Amino acid sequence: MVSFRIRAEELDKNDPLSNYREAFYFPKTEADQCVYFTGNSLGLQPKSVGNAINAELRDWADYGVEGHFHAEHPWYSYHELLMEKGAELVGAKKGEVVHMNGLTANIHFLMVSFYQPTPEKFKIICEAKAFPSDQYALESQVKFHGFDPKDAIVEVAPRPGEHTIREEDIEVAIEEHKDELALVFWGGVNYYTGQFFDIERITRAAHKAGVIAGFDFAHGAGNVPLDLHKWEVDFAAWCTYKYLNSGPGSVSGIYINEKHGKNKELIRFAGWWGHDKESRFKMEPGFKPVPGAEGWQLSNAPVFAMAPHLASLEMFAEVGMNKLREKSIILTGYLRELILHVAKERGANVEIITPENPEQRGCQLSILAHGYGKDLFNYLQKNGVFADWREPNVIRVAPVPLYNSFMDCYHFGKLLGEAFEKLEK
Prior knowledge:
Elements: H1 2-13, E1 24-25, E2 35-36, E3 45-46, H2 49-63, H3 67-70, H4 80-90, E4 97-100, H5 103-114, E5 123-127, H6 132-144, H7 149-152, E6 153-156, H8 167-177, E7 181-187, H9 199-208, E8 212-216, E9 235-238, E10 252-256, H10 258-261, H11 303-319, H12 321-346, E11 350-352, E12 365-369, H13 374-382, E13 385-386, E14 388-390, E15 394-397, H14 406-422
Parallel strand pairs: 2-13, 5-6, 5-7, 7-8, 8-9
Antiparallel strand pairs: 1-3, 4-10, 9-10, 11-12, 12-15, 14-15
């Protein structure tokens, strides 16, 4: 372990992003040290968020309703402040991204436009063990259209004895069901295993079969490099409270490829904030969508949810996803090596089910410690580690490059070794 500590200290010393750690608040804990490895569930609060929210509170107090036009950041057009930086983050054009609602609400609204089944073509291909909210959304959508989920939803699962899904199996499923297929909807990064899929390859396979390709990037946005426009993704949605550090339940982002955004005839559930800006306040009947992703908005901007996200996006724009990705690969690789070293040293049967290839993962590692059960997780939690437990027996840890250090990883490894020693299998 001495060599791992020396490496961690040296890597932290030479880390060009190390100063960003001081830009976040870390939870208080009774343990000697807080190791926050659950940014894949809720990111830490940037210290700039307080000022961002307080500025809007002051403008509300000073201007009342006139804050819509006279606030420092006028509320009427507040969502526009997020569009360019949000688009850069996911590799999109500015008009292809907008922020609104919550993630699952956005998935449902996007399904209105992009899941239009017929008696012949009604199936949806998705990943097995997708995040439950996605599963429920898909189930309810197919039921809404009068289909049985058992017939309409085709899940692609890992092969027997494997934990992750092979892209070639996704392609085979698309080809096999293409005559009945209406949509491919996939999680860009699997919440359970941390597998980062080849989005361009899946999109290409869907388009070859003549169907729409949509994605949930809840665990991808702010975690892995995305190039949605170049990959020709049709639509996507993501939350902003995980890797994007924008607060619990914060506003969601959506991406709609410009070819769809320019199609004013594409069916959608409409609201007045998606209506033509020049005639919005004429209050006339007849919906005229704003071109681009803005045309899917329903209600005016939730400013108090958007303010933290704007503060976070400014930090991401300053750092850049390329630098974050560079550190993430090294940081996660170091932690993976350390976990396996500690397990071998203590004689523990540990399996990391997240792909070993850095190109197939973000900063999450999913640990399967055979024979230890939840007592292992509880020991880590008691000693200041913020991770999470996923049934039936996986501990997920996410060393986030924006605020986690290599010494965080070292301390986690040290505590993991102590746990193996003290707990009976």
